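Reading a protein record of the kind used here takes only a little practice. The record below shows the convention in full:
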Amino acid sequence: MKVTLQTLGSGTSQGVPAIGCHCDTCRSEDPRDQRLRPSVLISANDSNILIDTSSDFRSQMLRFGITHIDAVLYTHHHFDHIGGFDDLRQYNFLQKTAMKLYGMEETLEEIRVTFRYAFGAAKQTGGGLPSAQLHPVRGEQAFDVAGISVMPVPVLHGVLPILGYRIGNLAYITDTNEVPASSMQLLEGLDILVLDALRHHAHPTHFSLNEAIDTARKIGAKKTYFTHIAHNIMHQRDSVLLPPDMEFSYDGMLVTSPLETA
């Protein structure tokens, strides 16, 4: 049995091209340089698990023809990762059920506060309200989603604790500048790692490209794909900087791995 990861967005909170920018990447005609906000879809056993409802969520669902979602895993509460929450209501309509949302208690509470109209007594529903079931999870404690085992991997986004996720021998870790030693152990034996690599120079809450390469070497996945990429990284131009077992993600990229863990 295989697990498939499809990159729905490989960009930053600004997206690429950035509004009003005329740099080489933002003017590039290479579709790999056109990056929506960060999100991936994990598919296995006829189930679809979304990681984050990005602020480009609706466009991503239409672009990639995603008509069914079993659950959403949230990495953290920053708006580029939760901003598409309201559009889950179309899946409520299609699937006739509330959407299951998984994340740290703090993340789910921020979603509840940010979209409080969806969680209280509605005075007027307009075009409808999203319906969600909130399921708090804790780092390093595996849980099942649609019959698939998911391991939450704690990492740091600056000083903010957030989660990456491991499913089988595939892991997705975005928005981080530190992977603690205990989490490194959770990432042993990976076939595929998708890892944050924001830009060439240092950032207080994200890995730079060199930091991401160093971390990927320590984790030792068979293949690493970098994501959450800003507009100063150009896909073709900068790919020559990467080791043979590492590549840049791009929107629409599909990778597969065995579902069973080693």
Remarks:
- The chain has one domain: 2-258.
- The mean pLDDT is 96.
- The longest strand covers residues 148-157.
